[in-house]
Amino acid sequence: MNDPGSAVAASAAAARAVWGAAFDNSYARDLEGAYVAWTPQAWPRPTLVRLNGGLAEELGLSPAALATAEGVAMLAGNVVPPGAQPLAQTYAGHQFGGLSPQLGDGRALLLGEVIDRYGQRRDIALKGSGRTPFSRGGDGRAALGPVLREYLVGEAMHAMGIPTTRALAAVTTGDTVQRDRRLPGAVLTRVAASHIRVGTFQFFAIRHDAASLRRLADYTIAPPYPQPAGDTHRYLELLRAVSRRQARLVARWMGIGFIHGVMNTDNMTVSGETIDYGPCAFIEGYDPATVFSSIDTGGRYAYGNQPGIAQWNLARFAECLLPLIDDDADRAVERATTVVREFASLYESAWREVLRAKLGLGSADGDGPGDDGGAAPDDGALADELLVLLARDRVDFTLGFRDLSAALRGDDDRWLGRFASARTDAQAWLSRWQAQIGSAGRNPDAVASAMELVNPLYIPRNHQVEAALAAATDHDDLAPFERLLAVVADPYAERAADAAYAEPAPAEQTACYQTFCGT
Fold it and tell me: What is residue 441's predicted lDDT score, i.e. its pLDDT?
């Protein structure tokens, strides 16, 4: 007779062989009350759609093992990886300015944390893993299109050096979900430095749970989160560190024309990573008022509003920390307000650095773009004037910067051809900019090459993303997705074969384009 105990042991050993990374589960261990332990839903026929082999290796996992039936079962949530403690995180959040006191993971589960090969702690979570106590009437599932969008855009952001959550894998469930129509169901395995959000702090702050709030803050101050300079005013330093990270993050969003689309406080991480790629999009014809999200009817999260919204969100974070910053309420408000007000100058400095790099306005000693030590008084004016010119003719934001490299190499027409009514003023601006480059004593070709390392040629253009997702969803054809993914994963080097991926959509198509949350 077979020994049931031996069979269980063999099964556990097989699971450990597939999932080779050890879970730490510090969130489950240290933050009781900030989550509900929960088990992911099992699906009828999970099938691997895309595995991020490079990321798997970073996490100490075997891509080959994850691609087996046993590995796919874990990526789908049908089998909990050995050592994982799946949980639904609790948080609150301001959504479009209105406070929702009870949100939480309605279709996601944190499996736990692993230490990657660089010694960094990384969260591993499932998205689309079924209903939880926080689903609020939702089905807890995800459709294939939004899962692939998050995979694609996250990898593009990573390739451009922007802090972001990333996808380890996408699997289909063998089931369908009901949205405006029946769609293939899918699960995303998401990796992040942390899933702690401003809304996580808000959950305890609005309940006046000082003990849990302090425990959360102390946990957040530990690596890999922002580190205070010392024990003095440690929570004020936490606020300042998060402010710095968010200022740099949003400046880099702005530098590639990225519109997050749903900058609610439950979508703002304290780690400074981009999270939640629901209604995101990329600006094409430059207009700071651009909005694509179907639910952002008032334009709250328009492209040009993102820095101000980041500061607004930071103020909500500061409100949470007030009881920890100082026992004297007035003094706590004064200290926190000072930090929140500093955000504007932090962002402005980060944004100017981004613009200087994009315009090749580095130092004369050859340190390269983005070195503030070489900033000239006219640099800021040149950048501001260019943005005005781009807006006047709705010039494509990406190409409006990228084509400047060609101008440094003698081809002015490529860049000037982007302008219609503003061409004369554009010519005058171009002459001043070229003179500024020359006055710094730098080689124009070297500057152009440096600019091409910060001005992407290939971004996930909205029409191309939609075409790739439609092919995958409607025709079970992943070839367009794979092709686009390969292009945006290498965004800077020009390739003749990929010329179509650099071109914007027709203006009339962009004018009526909308994105959706995908929930």
Answer: 84
The runs of H, that is alpha helices, within 160-286 are 198-205, 210-221, 234-255
Crossing angle, helix 69-76 and helix 4-18, to 10 degrees?
A: 80
Tell me, yes or no, if 266 is annotated catalytic: yes
Residue that the structure tokens 């996601």 belong to: 108
Q: Assign 122 to helix, strand or coil.
A: strand
Q: The tokens of 167 are what?
A: 């996808």
> Which residue among 105, 123, 266, 379 is the active-site one?
266
The predicted pLDDT at position 12 comes to 59
Residue 288: Cβ within 10 Å count: 13
Q: What are phi and psi of 69, to 5 degrees?
A: -60, -40
**At a CB cut-off of 8 Å and minimum separation 6, what does 77 contact?**
40, 41, 42, 43, 86, 109, 126, 129, 130, 187
Scored b (16 or more CB within 10 A) or e, 338-374 reads ebbebbeebbeebbbbbbbbbbbbbbeeeebbbbeeb
Alpha carbon 9 to its chain centroid, in Å, reads 40
Q: Which residues contact 167 (CB under 8 A, 6 or more apart)?
A: 50, 52, 55, 147, 150, 151, 154, 155, 188, 189, 190, 191
Instruction: State the DSSP code for 114.
Output: E
Q: For 459-507, what is the HEC assignment?
A: CCCHHHHHHHHHHHHHHCCCHHHHHHHHHHCCCCCCCHHHHHHHCCCCH
CB 188 within 8 A of CB 151: yes
Query: What's the pLDDT at 10?
Result: 46
Q: HEC profile for 310-324?
A: HHHHHHHHHHHHHHH
d(CA 221, CA 215): 10
**Minimal CA–CA distance to 386: which of 349, 439, 427?**
427
The CA-atom distances, in angstroms, between 278 and each of 95, 189, 510 are 14, 15, 18
* Residue spans of the chain under pLDDT 70: 1-14, 223-232, 362-377, 518-519
Q: What pLDDT score was predicted for residue 11?
A: 55
Query: Quick one: which of 352, 384, 369, 334 has its CA closest to 451?
Result: 369
**Burial tier of 491 (Cβ tally within 10 Å: 0-12, 13-18, 19+):** buried
CB-based contacts of 336, cutoff 8 Å, min separation 6: 236, 239, 318, 319, 321, 322, 325
C-alpha–C-alpha distance, residues 95 and 498, integer Å? 39
Sign, CA torsion 282/284/286/292: negative
Q: What is the pLDDT of residue 180?
A: 87
DSSP classification of residue 51: E
